[in-house]
Design a protein that fits this description.
Elements (H helix, E strand, L loop, with lengths): L7 E5 L2 H11 L3 E8 L4 E8 L2 E8 L18 E5 L2 H9 L9 E2 L6 E6 L5 E6 L1
Parallel strand pairs: 1-4, 5-8
Antiparallel strand pairs: 2-3, 3-4, 6-7, 7-8
Keywords: Metal-binding
Organism: Maribacter orientalis
Pfam family, one: Glyoxalase
Length: about 130
């Protein structure tokens, strides 16, 4: 049976820009970074609070994909936060602008979205 989500894999268009976004803006920790010569690809393993959660990849000329929350496929990546206003201000300090705050109609919790450098929707959901 399934125990938990092991990791999420993301392919970036500009590896260095995405690496900076996920480590500096979101504050994820680098576990390991390797360059795979045979694939001409970087693989960066990232953790949140010591738990491995994201693999960030680079590949030569990856095809673009629709990525708005309402597009078919992966809808978004969501992170739980204690203080939504604080994370919005933190992102703004890196010129990453959040969408207007919404309220979940079922839980009454506040949430918002930002976009990573490849426009992957990222949600911040207040605890």
């Amino acid at each position: 049976m399934i125990n938990k989500v092991h990791h999420i894999a993301i392919i970036s268009l500009d590896y260095e820009v995405s690496k900076q976004f996920y480590t500096d803006v979101l504050g994820l920790e680098v576990i390991r970074e390797v360059y795979r010569e045979e694939r001409k690809s970087y693989k960066l393993d990232l953790a949140l609070n010591g738990e491995y959660i994201i693999e960030l990849f680079s590949f030569p000329n990856p095809p673009k994909r629709q990525s708005r929350p309402e597009s078919c496929g992966l809808r978004h990546l969501a992170f739980e936060v204690d203080d939504l206003d604080k994370i919005i201000a933190h992102c703004k300090s890196y010129n990453v602008i959040a969408e207007p705050i919404r309220v979940d109609e079922f839980t009454q919790k506040r949430f918002t979205f930002i976009a990573d450098p490849d426009y992957l929707p990222i949600e911040f959901y207040e605890k």
